[in-house]
Write a structure and sequence with these properties.
Rossmann fold, single chain, six-stranded parallel sheet, 2 domains
Length: 284
Amino acid sequence: LKFEEWDKMRPQTIFVSATPGDWELKQSKGVFAEQVIRPTGLTDPECIIRPAISQIDDLMGECKKTAAKGERVLVTTLTKKMAEDLTEYFHDNGIKVRYMHSDIDTLERIEIIRDLRLGVFDVLVGINLLREGLDIPECSLVAILDADKEGFLRSTRSLIQTIGRAARNAHGRVILYADKETDSIKFALSETNRRREKQIKYNKEHGITPKTIQKSISSTLSEMTETQLDKNALPTVEEVKNIEKQIKEYTKLMKEAALNLEFEQAMVYRDKLKELEAIALKNL
């Protein structure tokens, strides 16, 4: 079905989104319920605007201070080249840093995020990959470079999503480097501050102290056990008679899992593939 066809025949609908778009708000006639209060007492992060003209050196100082506290930094740039250049510059100045962009495959991305959480490095530089889906409680600072450059990556919704990456940490802060305050920045900060004020007021009234989310790194990336793999009705390595056939099956499962955004499961399949390939090499 085309979207228009689906829209005409859809039943009563509930739209669920952290950042609803104009279409959803229009369809619901502005009537919505919002979940602003978090069980952990965490508030939306404090947002600060600083001049873009001195953004690199200012950010470098912030990265060093944040790393010294054992916390992590996410930096979002507008271009791949800027991400690479910034990474090289920070590295030359003694900062443990890596960058992530669309050329890096999905499974490697998961490993990079794991290493960031483990403290193998302290600063992760990216482009639009930092908008959604990154759950990194150790991250206490998000830096948005060239925040005043209007466009898709600096739209109100993108800014709100990026700001949200610092909302998992009790000390979360966001620095927007901008020489002018665009409409997107105004709306994004207005919404963030609106939520933050509600959260702070609620915490004060109920005696709640915000606590950083405690999330085991091993349970995030290694929770898929052999027992869970058995659910796929695939034989164990010891039972495998036709190694090539099993390699093909696991390769297919790995790709399907990645397409379905089941990245942790895909990593388990990848590890199983390595095990099978090692056996195949021994039998050559």
